[in-house]
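Title: Prediction job returns without error message
Component: structure pipeline
Severity: low
Priority: P3
Assignee: unassigned

Description:
Job completed but the reporter wants confirmation the result is attached to the right record. Sequence as submitted:
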Amino acid sequence: MVRNFLNTKENMADLVTLMPHQHQSRYRWMRNLRIDSAFLDRVYVVYKQTELDSNGRQKDPIVLGMIKVVEFTVDAKKGSNITIMDVATGDEQDIGHVPQQIFDWDCYVSVPPENIVKWDAWDCDGERRRSMSFGMLFKTSCRTESPIVGATMVDTLNGFRRNFPNMQLGKY
C-alpha cells in the first residue's frame, strides 16, 4: 500500500471541500487566516466594525456576541474537537478540523490540521498553575489591525479591550 500524505496547505484545501457547499466560496473569499492560542474558558468577542475615524482608526464597533471555549478533546481516529459556547444564549457548537461558521456570524473557525498542544505552567501569587493550550484557526474578511467597515471580526477579550477601552461588555 502506497501512502501519499498531503502537505498542510493541501490538507486544509481538502478540508474546505468538506464544508457545506454554500459556505465554501465565502470561506475562500475571506483574506485573514489566523491561528490563536486557545485554552479552556478563553473568551472571544465577535464584532462588526461600523465606522473609522478620519485617521482610519476604529471607532467603537457593534458587538455581535461573545464565545467561550468550554472543552477540548483529542481522538486518535477522529482528530481534535473544540466546543465553544455563545455566552449570551448558552448554545454550544462543536468545532472540528472542517471549517465552519461561528453560529450565524460572518466568520469561520476550525481546529488547525497542524496543531501545537502545550501543557503550560505559570506562577500566580506564589502558586504554580497549569493549563493546556491549543490552536484555534479563525478566518475573517480582514485583520483586526486593518479593519474594513462592515467586516465581522473575532478577537480575544483582552485584545478587544485593548482596542476598545471605553466599551462595556457586561458579564461573560
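Comment from assignee: result matches the submitted record. Helices lie at 8-16, 21-29, 157-163.
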